[in-house]
Structures are given as C-alpha cells and as structure tokens.
Amino acid sequence: MKNILIFCGIILLIYVVYRVYKYQTLDEGLDKLIKNGAIILDVRTEKEFEMGHISGSQNISLGEIRERYIELDKNKTYITVCSHGLRSVKVEHILKEKGFKKVYNGGACSDLQKSLDLK
C-alpha cells in the first residue's frame, strides 16, 4: 500500500512540474510570431496529424526530425507543437542543436489552437 501511495505521489508531482513548465515556457507572443509568418511545426505522428491539426501547420514527427530537419529553412521561425507538449520540447532542442535560432515551444496543439482562437 505504501509503495502505491509513493508511486501516485511521484506521478502527481511529475504532472504538476509538467504543467508549471508548460505555462512558463509557452511564449506569450506566439500569436504575434504566427501573424508575422512563423510556421507551426506539428511533431506528432502522421496518423495523429491526419486526425486533426492546426490549419497551415507542417508535419514532421519527432521520429523523423533528425533526418528531415534539412527540409526546414534555418532563417524562418518555427513553433513546435504536439499532443501534450513533451515531444515539442524535444524537437525544439534538436532544432536548436542543428543551428536553428528561432524555434519556440508551442506546447500542446489543442492549447495553442485555443489561444489563437481567442485572439
């Protein structure tokens, strides 16, 4: 019983840390970047993307980004999104390692879509 409570506590802590991180890293100016031509890079799988995505977004999954990043223009601005925000953080870091300067984590695509709809 004690182990189950410890496990649940750890899961809860991870979730809280994730939510705090998400709100701290979600840039308030993403809508302005999009209006200025930023490209939304959806890093979910092709099947997830086909089930629904932000209009105009480009799809390169986390699993393909290390091979396909050469399709992207290092001079453009990218906002990475996925279903919960974890894969988008990974792709943001991968692209920055590859020399991209203007990459921002947009978090969960549903959250970004809602914030864009409200503006």
From TrEMBL:
Keyword Transferase: yes
Any GO molecular function: transferase activity
Keywords from the UniProt entry: Transferase
Keyword Transferase: yes
TM annotation in the entry: none
UniProt xrefs under PANTHER family: FAD-DEPENDENT OXIDOREDUCTASE, PYRIDINE NUCLEOTIDE-DISULPHIDE OXIDOREDUCTASE
UniProt protein name: Rhodanese-related sulfurtransferase
